[in-house]
Design a protein that fits this description.
The chain is of the alpha+beta class and 888 residues long. It contains 16 helices and 35 strands.
């Protein structure tokens, strides 16, 4: 009986071992693998063959991929207990996408085993939000953090997010910013999670003082100026009462309280407070940004070296906090000894002799030693010639030159210029990419890098400018990819372009003086294709890509004022040479009302119609920046009871005008030029019909006298752009105009005279038959003389402008720059009144915004410093709005 019972117990335990689920290992997050399953003999591991592997607990991950990652596969033989299961768990855990891993045996039959991998997936990101930041900061941060909805949320992801956000605010000067990333379970989506990115920016940390020790050569202010992006707070030293007024303007509540509740006013503390809140350093920041600070230290050493102190070094720089708002920087510098250029020799040069190379280098023995200047004169000199361009403009693309210091003679450094001229490179292939809308031939005809020609660096730079001037591509992203092949002695060039929108829709309104509100609708297709009009399959979405320009414009204010114009321009007539052909038609009508308040009772009108045909071309003398253009124009002026401001009230005047313009334009960019100039001289002539007419002009009425207009008109315009610091640009310009007559019997006539003052009515010339010139700070057309016959308009004008520009955004979708200006000008009836020193002056600020769809928009505030003609008080404050590019 006892034997039978023992046998039954043994059989039962054997069945339990076979049928029970055996747990081999579990590795929850942060714990080590354990092996604590049933019926496992640790002293005598058994070998099993894997019969099947299944995966449970996953929702988004692929079963087969997980099995592959584990390293286990059906047919493998593993030992239990052993390292195979532990290794599989480690491999799965290492991926960072698993929360818990548990491998169990669902069945065992003899030496075969069925494995089950039980997993818990990490949560997936459903949403994330920022706290403690404004909208603009949040928008920028979303572009920087690598958070995409649906990605697995790991500890690494959250840590990287925290570091990215903290680094962003450090770059803005918030060195004490605190960032926390807090995860939360999503209550709607299974296995979803959200995170809250909590930011406490704290106060910006600014640099209060920057001091220098060890240098008795340059004043500290000079050295501080060489730290281009690292500056200290401006020192504000004002009388106590003025300090109090300044503080009250800053914050009328808190800051006045700050002063009035102190027993003794601490002027230094108040000055510090003003400096903190009125940081007037426009071109450098007082924020401490480590990357910019390190760059500025290099610039400081470069400054010393440019003055001959070759061995200058920063012995130490100490950055330390004063409090949670300010820090100081203390420099200890050692300028070392001042050096000069000694003997300069050349080696390896066969194409050009030492004399020619020395003349291009432009450095003499005894000059202050400056290795940066040497490299500039050798490699690329933006303001003059250099050795590299001398060779590369003659095809020597593989040219190299290295300045080697070969010896010292006291305080002199001897240099040897070691040259490797190489072979001349021939241009092999020239390709273009990125022109999604513009046809290839439009680009190829602008290229100066032609297959079969020698490589020429100057022509490469010039081509880049020409493509930029087209206006079809982002000038900041025009990239010539030069691919030299020294073995074949050739070079391939790929012009990498990025198209930008350049068609314009003008939908605007303006105040037209006596006409009231005038609406404008204009369409300009700046990359039009006339030949593709019948081919609808080539419309994108309009016929485009051939570089032609089609403009249609309508202005109207009911019946009081209406203007219609259409123009077409083909810049390469014939397709072989740059012959700019254009044709245009315009018709405008201006009606006079009997009274300002009666909108329907019209008593007079002026109609102006014109047809123009033009042809221009590039010339190569004096250089190939010059163009000569001509146009022939017929204009008709039809007056009916229009008052006496034009010399007669009813009648018809006609004019046939031939104009020729000689111009030179070397701007580096059409929208925000940094360098270059533009000069133009324009002359217009009508036939001198009075010299051959039998009309008695002394006794003729103005209606008969001006039936055919005759005059000669001259305009001179000059602009220059000088890059000062970074993108800060000085832009002076000057404009002159003169209208003369062939005969005193007829005079100049009433039309096309100059009217000066205001915004220039750019694109909004409601004063038909006049040449409107802007002068900010004065009311529109307020500087306009009237002759003895009551005809308004001057025959001589001059205008001078000085602008200081700085870009806010150079993005092609919205180019924005601000400017300060000072300008002066005047308008005279004739030479007997002309005085070049009698000018109306003004100064002010403005902003320009260019959007491809709408063109150039401008807003200016000007302050007239002188009285307008007929006024006793200075003109004072004026606001001006402008549309389009202002010519004068």
């Amino acid at each position: 009986m006892k034997g039978s019972l023992l046998t039954i117990i043994v059989i039962l335990f054997s069945m339990l071992e076979v049928s029970a689920q055996i747990n081999f290992g579990r590795r929850p997050a942060g714990e080590s693998t354990s092996q604590d399953g049933l019926s496992i003999n640790y002293s005598n591991p058994r070998e099993y063959e894997i019969a099947e592997i299944t995966v449970s607990g996953v929702q988004f991950l692929d079963d087969n991929a997980l099995i592959s990652i584990s390293g286990l596969k059906v047919g493998d033989k593993i030992k239990i207990p052993g390292d195979d299961i532990s290794l599989a768990i480690k491999k799965l855990w290492k991926q960072g996408i698993i929360g818990n891993v548990n491998i169990t045996a669902s069945k065992v039959e003899g030496s075969r085993i069925w494995l089950k991998i039980e997993l818990t997936e990490r949560p997936r990101l459903v949403k994330y939000e920022f706290e403690g930041v404004n909208r603009s900061q949040e928008s920028e941060l979303k572009d920087k953090v690598d958070l995409a909805k649906g990605r697995i949320l790991t500890d690494v992801t959250m840590k990287n997010t925290e570091l990215t956000v903290k680094k962003y605010f450090e770059s803005k000067g918030y060195l004490n910013a605190q960032v926390k990333v807090v995860p939360s379970q999503d209550t709607v989506i299974n296995n979803g999670a959200g995170i809250r990115i909590i930011v406490d920016k704290n106060k910006k940390v600014k640099i209060k003082n920057i001091t220098f020790e060890g240098d008795t050569i340059f004043p500290s202010a000079k050295l501080r100026s060489k730290l281009k992006k690292t500056g200290e707070l401006p020192k504000v030293t004002l009388p106590t009462d003025l300090l109090a007024k300044t503080l009250s303007l800053l914050n009328p509540v808190n800051l006045v309280h700050f002063i009035t509740h102190r027993k003794e006013t601490d002027e230094n503390e108040i000055s510090e407070y003003i400096a903190e809140h009125l940081n007037v350093n426009f071109f450098k920041s007082s924020k401490y940004i480590l990357s910019e600070y390190n760059e500025d230290k290099k610039k400081l050493i470069a400054f010393y070296q440019s003055k001959g102190y070759r061995d200058a070094e920063i012995v130490s720089d100490t950055v330390y906090n004063i409090n949670n708002k300010f820090l100081n920087i203390d420099f200890v510098v050692d300028p070392g000894k001042k050096y000069y250029f000694g003997d300069i020799s050349w080696s390896g040069n066969y194409v050009y002799n030492d004399e020619i190379l020395g003349r291009v280098l432009g450095i003499d023995k005894g000059d202050i030693y400056d290795l940066e200047l040497v490299n500039k004169r050798l490699q690329f000199n933006p303001t003059g010639a250099d050795i590299s361009s001398l060779y590369m403009d003659d095809g020597y693309l593989f040219f190299q030159v290295d300045p080697i210091e070969v010896g010292f003679d006291g305080d002199s450094v001897n240099l040897e210029m070691r040259i490797r001229e190489g072979a001349q490179a021939t241009i092999d292939k020239v390709t273009i990419s990125g022109n999604d809308k513009t046809n290839d031939h439009v680009i190829y005809r602008e290229l100066r890098t032609i297959p079969g020609q020698k490589f020429n660096r100057s022509e490469l730079i010039r081509t880049q400018r020409e493509l930029s001037q087209l206006g079809y591509f982002d000038p900041e992203q025009i990239n010539p990819d030069v691919r030299p092949n020294p073995v074949k002695e050739t070079v391939d060039i790929e012009w990498q372009l990025v198209e930008r929108p350049n068609d314009q829709i003008e939908l605007s309104g303006g105040w037209g003086g006596i006409y009231g509100f005038v609406g404008t609708l204009g369409l300009s297709f700046n990359n039009f294709s006339m030949r593709n009009i019948p081919h609808f399959d080539k419309w994108r979405p309009l016929p485009m890509g051939d570089g032609q320009k089609l403009s249609i414009r309508l202005q109207a204010n009911g019946k009081s004022f209406q203007s219609y114009s259409i123009s077409f321009n083909e810049p390469w007539l014939g397709g072989k040479k740059r012959n700019n052909f254009g044709v245009s038609f315009s018709h405008s009508i201006s009606r006079l009302r009997q009274s300002y308040f009666n909108v329907s009772d019209f008593v007079g009108s002026l109609k102006v119609s014109s047809v123009t045909v033009s042809l221009g071309r590039n010339v190569r003398w004096p250089d190939d920046y010059f163009t000569v253009s001509n146009y022939l124009q017929y204009q008709k002026y039809d007056l009916f009871n229009y008052g006496n401001s034009l010399g007669f009230s009813t009648g018809v005047s006609n004019s046939v005008i031939f104009n020729t313009t000689i111009a030179r334009n070397s701007f580096d960019s059409p929208m925000y030029p940094r360098t270059g100039s533009a000069v133009s001289l324009s002359a217009s002539f009508t036939p001198p019909l009075s010299l051959f007419s039998d009309i008695d002009y002394d006794n003729a009425s103005n209606e008969d006298k001006y039936r055919w207009l005759e005059y000669h008109k001259w305009n001179f315009d000059a602009k220059y752009y000088l890059k000062l610091i970074g993108d800060l640009v000085l832009a002076p310009r000057a404009h002159f105009g003169y209208i003369g007559s062939y005969s005193d019997k007829v005079g100049v006539g009433p039309f096309e005279r100059f009217q000066l003052g205001g915004d220039g009515l750019t694109g909004q010339n409601f004063l038909l038959g006049t040449d409107v010139i802007g002068l900010r700070g004065y009311e529109n057309n307020s500087i306009t003389p009237v002759d003895s016959e009551g005809i308004r308009g001057g025959t001589i004008f001059s205008k001078y402008v000085m602008e200081l520009r700085y870009p806010v955004s150079l993005n092609p979708s919205a180019t924005i720059y601000v400017q300060g200006f000072f300008e002066a000008g005047n308008n005279w009836q004739g030479f007997d009144e002309f005085n070049p020193y009698d000018l109306r002056r003004s100064a002010g600020l403005g902003v320009r915004i260019f959007m491809p769809a709408f063109g150039l928009l401008g807003l200016d505030w000007g302050y007239g410093l002188d009285p307008a003609p007929g006024q006793l008080d200075i003109s004072g404050s004026q606001f001006h709005f402008s549309l389009g590019q202002q010519i004068r």
